[in-house]
Amino acid sequence: MVGDILNGSCLCGDVEYQVRAPFLRFAHCHCSRCRKATGTGYATNLYVSPDHFEWTSGRDFVVRYDLPTAASFSTTFCRNCGSPLPHHTRSGREIVVPAGSLEEVPRHELQGHIFWDSRAEWTTANDKLPKYSEMPDWW
Questions:
Q1: DSSP alpha helix (H) spans, the chain
Q2: CB 58 within 8 A of CB 79
Q3: Taking burial as the number of CB atoms within 10 A of a residue's CB, which of 25, 90, 101, 123 is the most buried?
Q4: pLDDT digits (tens, 9 = 90+) for 56-79
Q5: Host domain of residue 50
Q6: Residue 135's pLDDT is what?
Q7: pTM for the whole structure
Q8: Do residues 15 and 101 make contact, with C-beta atoms less than 8 angstroms apart?
Q9: pLDDT recorded at residue 66
Q10: Is the peptide bond before 86 cis (omega within 30 degrees of 0)?
């Protein structure tokens, strides 16, 4: 996995990026903020170190939103098409990569469902991944 390079982009293609292994974590998040930010039942995110991420085009189209009522929640999106895009955590220690924006499949095993107890009632999971009621201690 070390050295794997994945490409990603927004829906309209104006923003492109590259992310390089090793990947820190890979999980489905069911918290209400991720659900609202994606408009789906959960967000599937890959986490990397900032030095393993690079915008390759369209950086000027990237807009960041920091939720004022949250200590750590942020989202980034393309100002043209609204697609979710990678963003630095507020601490700056990691990049959160929306897995659906990747062109290739990451060669990193999904580690589970986080904030499972906050999931939408209509959400199901037919996989054997671990389900954590909140953020696991190892996160």
A1: 32-38
A2: no
A3: 101
A4: 999 999 999 988 887 778 899 999
A5: 5-118
A6: 85
A7: 0.90
A8: no
A9: 86
A10: no
Of residues 56, 61, 43, the one with CA closest to residue 110: 43
Tell me if 81 is assigned to some domain: yes
Spatial CB neighbours of 97, under 8 Å, sequence gap ≥ 6? 8, 19, 45, 46, 47, 48, 53, 86
More confident position, 47 or 74? 47
Tokens matching residue 48: 């990397």
Residue 127, in any domain of the structure: no
CA distance 11 to 104: 15
Number of domains in the chain: 1
Distance CA(137)–CA(77), nearest Å, equals: 29
- Listed in sequence order, the residues at least 6 apart from 102 whose beta carbon sits closer than 8 Å to its beta carbon are 6, 7, 8, 19, 46
Q: Is residue 126 part of a domain?
A: no
Instruction: Examine residue 128 and state whether it is found in any structural domain, yes or no.
Output: no
Domain of residue 101, CATH code: 2.170.150.70
What is the four-CA torsion angle of 133, 134, 138, 139, rounded to 10 degrees? Answer: 140
